[in-house]
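Please discuss these two lines.
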Amino acid sequence: MKRSRPSSSSTTLPSTMPTPPLRRLSILLSLVVVTSQQPSSYAYISSGLPPHTHRRMLRQLTSDILHTDPGSLSPTAVNTTAPMLMSAWATAPAVAPAGRQRSVHSNGGAAAAGIHRGKERAMEVEKLLKRMIDERKAGNVEAIVKTADYNAVMKSWVMSGETGGGAAERVEQILTNMQEMYTTGNDTNVQPNLQSFLLAIEAWTRVPTSSNPDAPRRAQRILQWMSSIHHSRENDLAAPTTECFHLVLKSWANSGKLEAPIMAEHLIMYMQHLNSMGVTSVQPDTLCFNIVMSSWLKSGDITAEKRIRQIYEYMESASRSGHGEFKADASTYNIVIASISPAVKKFYDSHAARRADKILARLERGFMKGDESLRPDTIIYNQVIDYWAKTQSIRGYWLKARDVLDRQIRMYNSGAVRKCQPDVMGYTSVIAACASTYGTKKEKRHAFDVAHRTFIECCTHDAPNDVTYGIMFKGVSRLLHNREERDRYARTLFNLACDDGCLGEMAYSRFEEAVSPELLLELTGGERGGGSSYADLPRSWKRNTKMRMSAGQNQKSKVDFSRHELRP
Protein backbone atom coordinates (compact mmCIF):
# COMPACT_ATOMS: atom_id res chain seq x y z
CA MET A 1 0.00 0.00 0.00
CA LYS A 2 1.47 3.32 -1.03
CA ARG A 3 1.91 5.76 1.79
CA SER A 4 1.71 9.52 1.47
CA ARG A 5 4.97 11.30 2.10
CA PRO A 6 4.78 13.36 5.29
CA SER A 7 5.99 16.92 5.49
CA SER A 8 9.30 17.58 7.19
CA SER A 9 7.58 19.51 9.98
CA SER A 10 5.58 16.46 11.06
CA THR A 11 8.44 13.95 10.94
CA THR A 12 9.39 13.60 14.62
CA LEU A 13 10.26 10.81 17.01
CA PRO A 14 7.76 9.67 19.68
CA SER A 15 6.76 12.51 22.03
CA THR A 16 7.36 10.35 25.11
CA MET A 17 11.07 10.09 24.35
CA PRO A 18 13.81 12.67 24.81
CA THR A 19 14.49 14.85 21.78
CA PRO A 20 17.06 12.98 19.67
CA PRO A 21 20.19 14.57 18.26
CA LEU A 22 19.77 16.53 15.05
CA ARG A 23 21.94 14.02 13.15
CA ARG A 24 19.60 11.14 13.99
CA LEU A 25 16.63 13.18 12.84
CA SER A 26 18.33 13.93 9.50
CA ILE A 27 19.00 10.22 8.98
CA LEU A 28 15.36 9.46 9.73
CA LEU A 29 14.26 11.98 7.16
CA SER A 30 16.54 10.41 4.57
CA LEU A 31 14.74 7.08 5.05
CA VAL A 32 11.52 8.57 3.69
CA VAL A 33 12.66 7.79 0.17
CA VAL A 34 12.62 4.06 0.98
CA THR A 35 8.83 4.04 0.84
CA SER A 36 8.74 5.76 -2.54
CA GLN A 37 8.99 3.99 -5.86
CA GLN A 38 12.62 5.02 -6.33
CA PRO A 39 15.41 2.44 -5.88
CA SER A 40 16.22 1.68 -2.26
CA SER A 41 19.87 2.50 -2.88
CA TYR A 42 18.81 6.14 -3.20
CA ALA A 43 18.25 6.15 0.57
CA TYR A 44 21.91 5.37 1.19
CA ILE A 45 23.09 7.91 -1.36
CA SER A 46 20.93 10.68 0.09
CA SER A 47 21.97 9.86 3.64
CA GLY A 48 25.64 10.14 2.75
CA LEU A 49 26.45 7.28 5.13
CA PRO A 50 28.40 4.09 4.46
CA PRO A 51 26.37 0.87 4.83
CA HIS A 52 27.85 -0.02 8.24
CA THR A 53 26.94 3.37 9.68
CA HIS A 54 23.52 3.23 8.10
CA ARG A 55 22.84 -0.18 9.61
CA ARG A 56 23.93 1.10 13.02
CA MET A 57 21.52 4.01 12.74
CA LEU A 58 18.72 1.63 11.75
CA ARG A 59 19.39 -0.43 14.85
CA GLN A 60 19.31 2.69 17.04
CA LEU A 61 16.08 4.02 15.52
CA THR A 62 14.49 0.58 15.80
CA SER A 63 15.56 0.32 19.44
CA ASP A 64 14.01 3.74 20.15
CA ILE A 65 10.62 2.40 19.05
CA LEU A 66 10.88 -1.09 20.55
CA HIS A 67 11.79 0.18 24.03
CA THR A 68 8.77 2.42 24.49
CA ASP A 69 5.75 1.39 26.53
CA PRO A 70 2.81 -0.03 24.53
CA GLY A 71 0.26 2.67 23.77
CA SER A 72 2.74 5.55 23.97
CA LEU A 73 3.83 5.93 20.33
CA SER A 74 2.89 9.13 18.54
CA PRO A 75 0.85 9.15 15.29
CA THR A 76 4.03 10.02 13.39
CA ALA A 77 5.86 7.05 14.87
CA VAL A 78 3.14 4.53 14.00
CA ASN A 79 2.16 5.93 10.61
CA THR A 80 5.53 7.05 9.26
CA THR A 81 8.61 6.11 11.27
CA ALA A 82 7.89 2.42 11.92
CA PRO A 83 6.74 1.62 8.36
CA MET A 84 9.78 3.40 6.94
CA LEU A 85 12.10 1.46 9.21
CA MET A 86 10.47 -1.84 8.23
CA SER A 87 10.90 -1.05 4.56
CA ALA A 88 14.49 0.10 5.13
CA TRP A 89 15.39 -3.11 6.99
CA ALA A 90 13.76 -5.25 4.29
CA THR A 91 15.91 -3.69 1.57
CA ALA A 92 19.11 -2.95 3.52
CA PRO A 93 22.29 -4.29 1.89
CA ALA A 94 23.77 -7.39 3.47
CA VAL A 95 27.08 -5.94 4.64
CA ALA A 96 29.04 -7.59 7.43
CA PRO A 97 29.98 -5.56 10.49
CA ALA A 98 33.46 -4.06 10.14
CA GLY A 99 34.94 -6.42 12.72
CA ARG A 100 33.74 -9.52 10.86
CA GLN A 101 34.76 -8.75 7.32
CA ARG A 102 38.34 -9.94 7.70
CA SER A 103 37.35 -13.06 9.60
CA VAL A 104 35.51 -14.51 6.61
CA HIS A 105 38.15 -16.25 4.51
CA SER A 106 36.20 -18.75 2.46
CA ASN A 107 33.22 -18.57 0.15
CA GLY A 108 31.33 -20.86 2.49
CA GLY A 109 32.06 -18.59 5.43
CA ALA A 110 30.99 -15.53 3.48
CA ALA A 111 27.73 -17.21 2.48
CA ALA A 112 27.02 -18.26 6.07
CA ALA A 113 27.72 -14.74 7.31
CA GLY A 114 25.42 -13.33 4.63
CA ILE A 115 22.58 -15.63 5.69
CA HIS A 116 23.11 -14.65 9.34
CA ARG A 117 22.84 -10.98 8.47
CA GLY A 118 19.80 -11.66 6.32
CA LYS A 119 18.03 -13.35 9.21
CA GLU A 120 18.98 -10.43 11.42
CA ARG A 121 17.24 -8.03 9.06
CA ALA A 122 14.15 -10.20 8.91
CA MET A 123 13.99 -10.50 12.70
CA GLU A 124 14.26 -6.71 13.10
CA VAL A 125 11.29 -6.23 10.77
CA GLU A 126 9.34 -8.91 12.66
CA LYS A 127 10.04 -7.08 15.94
CA LEU A 128 8.77 -3.81 14.53
CA LEU A 129 5.62 -5.50 13.23
CA LYS A 130 4.95 -7.10 16.60
CA ARG A 131 5.51 -3.76 18.30
CA MET A 132 2.90 -2.17 16.04
CA ILE A 133 0.42 -4.95 16.81
CA ASP A 134 1.05 -4.54 20.55
CA GLU A 135 0.53 -0.78 20.18
CA ARG A 136 -2.88 -1.43 18.62
CA LYS A 137 -3.84 -3.85 21.39
CA ALA A 138 -2.84 -1.24 23.96
CA GLY A 139 -5.54 1.06 22.60
CA ASN A 140 -3.65 3.30 20.20
CA VAL A 141 -6.17 3.72 17.38
CA GLU A 142 -3.52 5.31 15.19
CA ALA A 143 -1.50 2.08 15.13
CA ILE A 144 -2.92 0.42 12.03
CA VAL A 145 -0.86 -2.42 10.59
CA LYS A 146 -1.43 -2.56 6.86
CA THR A 147 -0.72 -4.88 3.97
CA ALA A 148 2.47 -3.01 3.09
CA ASP A 149 3.85 -3.69 6.57
CA TYR A 150 3.29 -7.43 6.28
CA ASN A 151 4.78 -7.34 2.77
CA ALA A 152 7.91 -5.73 4.22
CA VAL A 153 8.27 -8.64 6.65
CA MET A 154 7.78 -11.14 3.84
CA LYS A 155 10.30 -9.36 1.63
CA SER A 156 12.89 -9.33 4.40
CA TRP A 157 12.61 -13.13 4.66
CA VAL A 158 12.72 -13.56 0.88
CA MET A 159 15.91 -11.48 0.77
CA SER A 160 17.44 -13.15 3.83
CA GLY A 161 19.52 -15.62 1.80
CA GLU A 162 18.20 -18.59 3.79
CA THR A 163 17.82 -21.46 1.29
CA GLY A 164 16.89 -24.35 3.54
CA GLY A 165 13.18 -23.68 3.29
CA GLY A 166 12.70 -22.04 6.69
CA ALA A 167 12.34 -18.55 5.23
CA ALA A 168 9.86 -19.77 2.61
CA GLU A 169 7.82 -21.54 5.30
CA ARG A 170 7.70 -18.33 7.32
CA VAL A 171 6.63 -16.23 4.31
CA GLU A 172 3.87 -18.70 3.44
CA GLN A 173 2.70 -18.71 7.06
CA ILE A 174 2.47 -14.89 7.09
CA LEU A 175 0.51 -14.91 3.82
CA THR A 176 -1.91 -17.53 5.15
CA ASN A 177 -2.47 -15.54 8.35
CA MET A 178 -3.09 -12.37 6.35
CA GLN A 179 -5.73 -14.04 4.21
CA GLU A 180 -7.37 -15.60 7.27
CA MET A 181 -7.54 -12.25 9.07
CA TYR A 182 -9.02 -10.61 5.99
CA THR A 183 -11.53 -13.38 5.27
CA THR A 184 -12.82 -13.57 8.86
CA GLY A 185 -13.10 -9.79 9.07
CA ASN A 186 -10.71 -9.53 12.00
CA ASP A 187 -8.55 -7.04 10.13
CA THR A 188 -9.57 -5.72 6.72
CA ASN A 189 -6.42 -3.58 6.50
CA VAL A 190 -4.23 -6.61 5.75
CA GLN A 191 -5.81 -7.88 2.55
CA PRO A 192 -3.09 -9.80 0.67
CA ASN A 193 -2.40 -8.19 -2.68
CA LEU A 194 -0.49 -9.25 -5.78
CA GLN A 195 2.86 -8.37 -4.21
CA SER A 196 2.06 -10.54 -1.20
CA PHE A 197 1.50 -13.60 -3.37
CA LEU A 198 4.48 -12.87 -5.59
CA LEU A 199 6.74 -12.71 -2.53
CA ALA A 200 5.42 -16.03 -1.25
CA ILE A 201 5.93 -17.70 -4.63
CA GLU A 202 9.39 -16.18 -5.02
CA ALA A 203 10.37 -17.42 -1.56
CA TRP A 204 9.87 -21.02 -2.66
CA THR A 205 11.56 -20.49 -6.05
CA ARG A 206 14.71 -19.45 -4.16
CA VAL A 207 14.83 -22.80 -2.33
CA PRO A 208 16.95 -25.35 -4.27
CA THR A 209 15.47 -28.81 -4.66
CA SER A 210 18.59 -30.20 -3.00
CA SER A 211 17.37 -28.53 0.21
CA ASN A 212 13.67 -29.15 -0.27
CA PRO A 213 12.59 -31.42 -3.17
CA ASP A 214 9.02 -30.12 -2.90
CA ALA A 215 9.95 -26.46 -3.44
CA PRO A 216 8.48 -26.21 -7.01
CA ARG A 217 5.26 -27.88 -5.85
CA ARG A 218 4.98 -25.52 -2.89
CA ALA A 219 5.35 -22.53 -5.22
CA GLN A 220 2.73 -23.97 -7.56
CA ARG A 221 0.40 -24.68 -4.65
CA ILE A 222 0.44 -20.99 -3.67
CA LEU A 223 -0.31 -20.05 -7.27
CA GLN A 224 -3.27 -22.43 -7.41
CA TRP A 225 -4.57 -21.22 -4.03
CA MET A 226 -4.26 -17.67 -5.30
CA SER A 227 -6.40 -18.51 -8.32
CA SER A 228 -8.93 -20.35 -6.16
CA ILE A 229 -9.60 -17.54 -3.68
CA HIS A 230 -9.84 -15.03 -6.51
CA HIS A 231 -12.33 -17.22 -8.36
CA SER A 232 -14.41 -17.70 -5.19
CA ARG A 233 -14.32 -13.92 -4.59
CA GLU A 234 -12.62 -14.35 -1.23
CA ASN A 235 -9.94 -11.90 -2.33
CA ASP A 236 -10.42 -9.63 -5.33
CA LEU A 237 -6.72 -8.64 -5.23
CA ALA A 238 -5.53 -12.22 -5.68
CA ALA A 239 -5.91 -12.33 -9.46
CA PRO A 240 -2.89 -14.27 -10.76
CA THR A 241 -0.73 -12.68 -13.44
CA THR A 242 1.64 -13.97 -16.08
CA GLU A 243 4.52 -12.90 -13.83
CA CYS A 244 3.34 -15.36 -11.17
CA PHE A 245 3.49 -18.16 -13.70
CA HIS A 246 6.95 -17.08 -14.86
CA LEU A 247 8.28 -17.67 -11.35
CA VAL A 248 6.73 -21.12 -11.00
CA LEU A 249 7.76 -22.17 -14.50
CA LYS A 250 11.38 -21.19 -13.80
CA SER A 251 11.24 -23.10 -10.53
CA TRP A 252 10.26 -26.27 -12.37
CA ALA A 253 12.75 -25.69 -15.19
CA ASN A 254 15.63 -25.34 -12.72
CA SER A 255 14.54 -28.17 -10.44
CA GLY A 256 16.21 -30.98 -12.38
CA LYS A 257 13.21 -33.20 -11.71
CA LEU A 258 12.16 -35.85 -14.20
CA GLU A 259 8.60 -34.55 -14.31
CA ALA A 260 9.62 -30.90 -14.72
CA PRO A 261 8.88 -30.54 -18.48
CA ILE A 262 5.44 -32.12 -18.10
CA MET A 263 4.56 -29.95 -15.11
CA ALA A 264 5.69 -26.86 -17.04
CA GLU A 265 3.48 -27.80 -19.98
CA HIS A 266 0.52 -28.32 -17.64
CA LEU A 267 1.06 -24.82 -16.27
CA ILE A 268 0.84 -23.41 -19.80
CA MET A 269 -2.46 -25.23 -20.31
CA TYR A 270 -3.67 -23.93 -16.94
CA MET A 271 -2.84 -20.39 -18.04
CA GLN A 272 -4.83 -20.85 -21.23
CA HIS A 273 -7.74 -22.22 -19.17
CA LEU A 274 -7.73 -19.24 -16.82
CA ASN A 275 -7.59 -16.84 -19.75
CA SER A 276 -10.58 -18.54 -21.37
CA MET A 277 -12.44 -18.17 -18.05
CA GLY A 278 -12.00 -14.39 -18.18
CA VAL A 279 -8.82 -13.93 -16.13
CA THR A 280 -7.29 -11.43 -18.53
CA SER A 281 -4.23 -10.87 -16.33
CA VAL A 282 -3.01 -14.35 -17.31
CA GLN A 283 -1.82 -14.86 -20.86
CA PRO A 284 0.96 -17.20 -22.04
CA ASP A 285 3.76 -15.22 -23.64
CA THR A 286 7.02 -15.98 -25.42
CA LEU A 287 8.94 -16.27 -22.15
CA CYS A 288 6.52 -18.93 -20.87
CA PHE A 289 7.07 -21.15 -23.89
CA ASN A 290 10.83 -20.53 -23.83
CA ILE A 291 10.95 -21.68 -20.20
CA VAL A 292 9.01 -24.83 -21.09
CA MET A 293 11.40 -25.59 -23.94
CA SER A 294 14.35 -24.88 -21.64
CA SER A 295 12.90 -27.39 -19.20
CA TRP A 296 12.83 -30.03 -21.92
CA LEU A 297 16.38 -29.10 -22.93
CA LYS A 298 17.68 -29.58 -19.38
CA SER A 299 15.80 -32.85 -18.92
CA GLY A 300 18.10 -34.86 -21.18
CA ASP A 301 15.05 -36.82 -22.38
CA ILE A 302 15.59 -38.70 -25.62
CA THR A 303 12.44 -37.07 -27.05
CA ALA A 304 13.44 -33.55 -25.98
CA GLU A 305 14.43 -32.35 -29.46
CA LYS A 306 11.18 -33.57 -30.98
CA ARG A 307 9.06 -31.99 -28.27
CA ILE A 308 10.94 -28.70 -28.42
CA ARG A 309 10.48 -28.61 -32.19
CA GLN A 310 6.72 -29.23 -31.76
CA ILE A 311 6.41 -26.36 -29.30
CA TYR A 312 8.40 -24.10 -31.62
CA GLU A 313 6.18 -24.96 -34.60
CA TYR A 314 3.10 -24.32 -32.44
CA MET A 315 4.43 -20.88 -31.55
CA GLU A 316 5.11 -20.10 -35.21
CA SER A 317 1.66 -21.29 -36.26
CA ALA A 318 -0.07 -19.33 -33.49
CA SER A 319 1.92 -16.22 -34.42
CA ARG A 320 0.79 -16.48 -38.03
CA SER A 321 -2.78 -16.80 -36.75
CA GLY A 322 -2.56 -13.51 -34.89
CA HIS A 323 -1.26 -14.58 -31.47
CA GLY A 324 1.78 -12.32 -31.50
CA GLU A 325 2.08 -12.40 -27.71
CA PHE A 326 4.01 -15.66 -27.91
CA LYS A 327 5.82 -15.52 -31.21
CA ALA A 328 9.26 -17.09 -31.34
CA ASP A 329 12.21 -14.82 -30.59
CA ALA A 330 15.99 -15.24 -30.82
CA SER A 331 16.06 -17.12 -27.49
CA THR A 332 13.50 -19.58 -28.88
CA TYR A 333 15.73 -20.32 -31.87
CA ASN A 334 18.76 -20.72 -29.60
CA ILE A 335 16.93 -23.35 -27.56
CA VAL A 336 15.68 -25.19 -30.66
CA ILE A 337 19.19 -25.35 -32.14
CA ALA A 338 20.73 -26.31 -28.78
CA SER A 339 18.28 -29.23 -28.53
CA ILE A 340 19.87 -30.77 -31.64
CA SER A 341 23.22 -31.18 -29.87
CA PRO A 342 22.61 -34.76 -28.60
CA ALA A 343 21.64 -35.89 -32.11
CA VAL A 344 24.98 -34.62 -33.41
CA LYS A 345 27.35 -35.52 -30.59
CA LYS A 346 25.70 -38.58 -29.05
CA PHE A 347 23.61 -40.29 -31.72
CA TYR A 348 25.69 -39.20 -34.76
CA ASP A 349 22.62 -38.20 -36.75
CA SER A 350 23.91 -37.22 -40.18
CA HIS A 351 20.89 -35.00 -40.81
CA ALA A 352 21.04 -33.07 -37.52
CA ALA A 353 23.42 -30.35 -38.70
CA ARG A 354 21.21 -29.70 -41.72
CA ARG A 355 18.17 -29.31 -39.45
CA ALA A 356 20.04 -26.78 -37.31
CA ASP A 357 21.22 -24.89 -40.40
CA LYS A 358 17.67 -24.60 -41.71
CA ILE A 359 16.46 -23.24 -38.36
CA LEU A 360 19.28 -20.67 -38.41
CA ALA A 361 18.33 -19.68 -41.96
CA ARG A 362 14.74 -19.07 -40.82
CA LEU A 363 16.05 -16.85 -38.03
CA GLU A 364 18.18 -14.89 -40.48
CA ARG A 365 15.31 -14.41 -42.92
CA GLY A 366 13.00 -13.23 -40.17
CA PHE A 367 15.53 -10.69 -38.95
CA MET A 368 16.29 -9.41 -42.46
CA LYS A 369 12.56 -8.82 -42.91
CA GLY A 370 12.68 -6.39 -40.00
CA ASP A 371 11.85 -8.51 -36.93
CA GLU A 372 14.21 -7.12 -34.27
CA SER A 373 13.32 -9.91 -31.82
CA LEU A 374 15.09 -12.36 -34.14
CA ARG A 375 18.50 -10.69 -33.86
CA PRO A 376 21.07 -13.55 -34.07
CA ASP A 377 24.12 -13.72 -31.83
CA THR A 378 27.56 -15.31 -31.85
CA ILE A 379 26.45 -18.32 -29.80
CA ILE A 380 23.85 -19.53 -32.27
CA TYR A 381 26.28 -19.34 -35.19
CA ASN A 382 28.97 -21.17 -33.21
CA GLN A 383 26.52 -23.97 -32.45
CA VAL A 384 25.62 -24.58 -36.08
CA ILE A 385 29.26 -24.34 -37.21
CA ASP A 386 30.20 -26.89 -34.54
CA TYR A 387 27.42 -29.24 -35.68
CA TRP A 388 28.70 -29.19 -39.25
CA ALA A 389 32.28 -29.69 -38.05
CA LYS A 390 31.20 -32.87 -36.27
CA THR A 391 29.09 -34.25 -39.15
CA GLN A 392 31.89 -35.91 -41.05
CA SER A 393 29.62 -38.44 -42.71
CA ILE A 394 28.44 -35.82 -45.22
CA ARG A 395 30.81 -35.05 -48.05
CA GLY A 396 31.94 -31.44 -48.06
CA TYR A 397 30.82 -30.88 -44.47
CA TRP A 398 33.75 -28.50 -43.92
CA LEU A 399 32.45 -26.28 -46.71
CA LYS A 400 29.07 -26.20 -44.97
CA ALA A 401 30.77 -25.06 -41.76
CA ARG A 402 32.63 -22.35 -43.65
CA ASP A 403 29.40 -21.26 -45.36
CA VAL A 404 27.75 -20.63 -41.98
CA LEU A 405 30.79 -18.61 -40.89
CA ASP A 406 30.61 -16.57 -44.11
CA ARG A 407 26.95 -15.79 -43.42
CA GLN A 408 27.87 -14.70 -39.91
CA ILE A 409 30.63 -12.44 -41.24
CA ARG A 410 28.26 -10.84 -43.76
CA MET A 411 25.65 -10.30 -41.06
CA TYR A 412 28.22 -8.68 -38.79
CA ASN A 413 29.83 -6.56 -41.51
CA SER A 414 26.42 -5.24 -42.56
CA GLY A 415 26.39 -3.35 -39.26
CA ALA A 416 22.88 -4.56 -38.46
CA VAL A 417 23.94 -7.08 -35.79
CA ARG A 418 26.98 -6.21 -33.73
CA LYS A 419 26.46 -9.01 -31.22
CA CYS A 420 27.06 -11.74 -33.81
CA GLN A 421 30.75 -10.90 -34.19
CA PRO A 422 32.70 -14.03 -35.17
CA ASP A 423 35.01 -15.23 -32.40
CA VAL A 424 37.83 -17.69 -31.93
CA MET A 425 35.44 -20.56 -31.23
CA GLY A 426 33.73 -20.24 -34.59
CA TYR A 427 37.00 -19.88 -36.49
CA THR A 428 38.51 -22.86 -34.65
CA SER A 429 35.50 -25.06 -35.42
CA VAL A 430 35.83 -24.35 -39.15
CA ILE A 431 39.56 -25.12 -39.02
CA ALA A 432 38.79 -28.36 -37.15
CA ALA A 433 36.28 -29.36 -39.84
CA CYS A 434 38.91 -28.77 -42.54
CA ALA A 435 41.64 -30.61 -40.61
CA SER A 436 39.48 -33.74 -40.41
CA THR A 437 38.74 -33.81 -44.13
CA TYR A 438 39.12 -37.08 -45.99
CA GLY A 439 39.22 -37.69 -49.76
CA THR A 440 41.56 -37.04 -52.65
CA LYS A 441 44.72 -34.92 -52.54
CA LYS A 442 42.85 -32.22 -54.40
CA GLU A 443 40.06 -32.18 -51.83
CA LYS A 444 42.54 -32.09 -48.97
CA ARG A 445 44.44 -29.25 -50.61
CA HIS A 446 41.19 -27.30 -50.96
CA ALA A 447 40.38 -27.98 -47.31
CA PHE A 448 43.82 -26.73 -46.25
CA ASP A 449 43.37 -23.54 -48.26
CA VAL A 450 40.08 -22.91 -46.43
CA ALA A 451 41.70 -23.67 -43.06
CA HIS A 452 44.58 -21.31 -43.83
CA ARG A 453 42.23 -18.49 -44.85
CA THR A 454 40.14 -19.04 -41.73
CA PHE A 455 43.22 -18.96 -39.50
CA ILE A 456 44.40 -15.67 -41.04
CA GLU A 457 40.93 -14.18 -40.45
CA CYS A 458 41.03 -15.38 -36.86
CA CYS A 459 44.40 -13.68 -36.36
CA THR A 460 43.04 -10.47 -37.90
CA HIS A 461 39.72 -10.21 -36.06
CA ASP A 462 40.33 -12.12 -32.81
CA ALA A 463 43.21 -14.05 -31.26
CA PRO A 464 43.90 -17.77 -31.79
CA ASN A 465 44.27 -19.86 -28.65
CA ASP A 466 46.15 -23.06 -27.93
CA VAL A 467 43.34 -25.18 -29.38
CA THR A 468 43.36 -23.17 -32.61
CA TYR A 469 47.09 -23.74 -33.00
CA GLY A 470 46.71 -27.43 -32.18
CA ILE A 471 44.03 -27.88 -34.83
CA MET A 472 46.11 -25.99 -37.41
CA PHE A 473 49.07 -28.30 -36.74
CA LYS A 474 46.71 -31.22 -37.28
CA GLY A 475 45.68 -29.72 -40.61
CA VAL A 476 49.31 -29.28 -41.62
CA SER A 477 50.01 -32.91 -40.76
CA ARG A 478 46.98 -34.39 -42.53
CA LEU A 479 46.41 -32.10 -45.49
CA LEU A 480 49.87 -31.10 -46.77
CA HIS A 481 51.65 -33.95 -48.55
CA ASN A 482 54.84 -32.16 -49.58
CA ARG A 483 57.41 -32.46 -46.79
CA GLU A 484 59.19 -29.19 -47.52
CA GLU A 485 55.97 -27.23 -47.64
CA ARG A 486 54.77 -28.92 -44.46
CA ASP A 487 58.01 -28.06 -42.60
CA ARG A 488 58.03 -24.48 -43.83
CA TYR A 489 54.45 -23.86 -42.80
CA ALA A 490 54.87 -25.65 -39.45
CA ARG A 491 58.00 -23.63 -38.64
CA THR A 492 56.18 -20.30 -39.03
CA LEU A 493 53.14 -21.60 -37.18
CA PHE A 494 55.33 -22.86 -34.33
CA ASN A 495 57.04 -19.48 -33.98
CA LEU A 496 53.68 -17.72 -33.87
CA ALA A 497 52.35 -20.10 -31.24
CA CYS A 498 55.43 -19.56 -29.07
CA ASP A 499 55.26 -15.78 -29.47
CA ASP A 500 51.59 -15.84 -28.43
CA GLY A 501 52.29 -18.17 -25.50
CA CYS A 502 49.75 -20.61 -26.92
CA LEU A 503 51.81 -23.75 -27.44
CA GLY A 504 49.52 -26.12 -25.57
CA GLU A 505 50.23 -29.78 -24.96
CA MET A 506 47.88 -30.85 -27.73
CA ALA A 507 49.41 -28.30 -30.10
CA TYR A 508 52.91 -29.55 -29.36
CA SER A 509 51.85 -33.15 -29.90
CA ARG A 510 50.34 -32.24 -33.28
CA PHE A 511 53.45 -30.26 -34.14
CA GLU A 512 55.65 -33.31 -33.50
CA GLU A 513 53.46 -35.32 -35.89
CA ALA A 514 53.61 -32.66 -38.58
CA VAL A 515 57.35 -31.91 -38.87
CA SER A 516 60.45 -33.83 -39.82
CA PRO A 517 62.82 -35.03 -37.05
CA GLU A 518 65.43 -32.52 -38.19
CA LEU A 519 63.10 -29.54 -37.87
CA LEU A 520 61.82 -30.81 -34.52
CA LEU A 521 65.39 -30.98 -33.23
CA GLU A 522 66.19 -27.52 -34.58
CA LEU A 523 63.17 -25.77 -33.09
CA THR A 524 62.99 -27.46 -29.70
CA GLY A 525 66.63 -28.21 -28.99
CA GLY A 526 65.85 -31.77 -27.99
CA GLU A 527 67.94 -34.88 -28.37
CA ARG A 528 68.56 -36.37 -31.79
CA GLY A 529 65.71 -38.60 -32.87
CA GLY A 530 63.11 -36.64 -30.94
CA GLY A 531 62.28 -33.26 -29.48
CA SER A 532 62.13 -32.07 -25.93
CA SER A 533 59.30 -33.19 -23.70
CA TYR A 534 56.50 -30.69 -23.31
CA ALA A 535 57.36 -30.14 -19.63
CA ASP A 536 60.90 -29.04 -20.59
CA LEU A 537 59.76 -26.32 -23.01
CA PRO A 538 60.15 -22.67 -21.93
CA ARG A 539 57.22 -21.47 -19.86
CA SER A 540 56.88 -18.35 -21.99
CA TRP A 541 55.83 -20.55 -24.93
CA LYS A 542 52.82 -21.86 -23.01
CA ARG A 543 51.95 -18.94 -20.75
CA ASN A 544 48.48 -18.45 -22.27
CA THR A 545 47.45 -22.06 -22.77
CA LYS A 546 44.67 -21.88 -20.19
CA MET A 547 43.26 -18.61 -21.48
CA ARG A 548 40.20 -18.59 -23.68
CA MET A 549 39.44 -15.47 -25.67
CA SER A 550 35.85 -14.23 -25.67
CA ALA A 551 34.11 -12.49 -28.55
CA GLY A 552 35.07 -8.88 -28.92
CA GLN A 553 38.37 -8.99 -27.01
CA ASN A 554 40.43 -8.87 -30.20
CA GLN A 555 43.71 -9.44 -28.35
CA LYS A 556 46.05 -9.58 -31.31
CA SER A 557 49.56 -10.97 -31.29
CA LYS A 558 52.53 -8.68 -30.86
CA VAL A 559 53.95 -10.29 -34.01
CA ASP A 560 50.87 -9.85 -36.18
CA PHE A 561 53.00 -9.06 -39.22
CA SER A 562 54.56 -12.53 -39.06
CA ARG A 563 51.27 -14.18 -39.89
CA HIS A 564 51.57 -13.02 -43.48
CA GLU A 565 54.55 -15.36 -43.81
CA LEU A 566 52.08 -18.25 -43.75
CA ARG A 567 51.50 -19.33 -47.32
CA PRO A 568 49.40 -22.31 -48.35
Notes: The two ends are 73 Å apart (CA to CA).
